[in-house]
Amino acid sequence: MEKYKLPVPGEIYRHFKNKLYQIIAIAIHSETDEKMVVYQALYGKYQVFVRPLENFISKVDEHTYRFTLVDRDHLDNHEEDNQATSVKENRLDTIQKENAILDEPFYYDNSELIQFLDAKTCQEKLNILTSMKNQLNNNILNNMLISLDLAITDGTLEEHFDILKDYLQTRARFEINRLR
């Protein structure tokens, strides 16, 4: 396979069918250790998808990659591209309202996110979540929701926090921490 730049969180890629997607994370399959790409559509309902990295960077034919990196300047300078214009107007407004940054990949201290992901009980996860409430952004919160197989819906950061908190409180209430 030819040399291909690995996707980085925050980058935008164009699918060969001409739809735009933003990289959320590179994940590791828990059973096979296969690298997976977690990415979000920049159109419609902004659904989140996962695909094996090898498949993401593969070619669909001899000359066409499945996904190609989009130059952000290209998005800003080509107004005739209706999809890019729509994404630029709609998605940028949404992301700016949510306090996220589209102009550069998001980087954050993920030590608390890692603690959350490594926590063995829902009560531990709940404690970590509430302790970092003032430091949360949509990227961290979305990763927490994804890790619990919860759907990312439209809404504010506060609404997503409340959904996750309620979920963890319910799970913690019924969690069994002892052997029978």
Automatic annotation (TrEMBL):
Residues 12-67 form the DUF1653 domain. Pfam families: DUF1653. It comes from the Bacteria. This is DUF1653 domain-containing protein. It comes from Anaeromicropila herbilytica. The lineage of its organism: Bacteria, Bacillati, Bacillota, Clostridia, Lachnospirales.
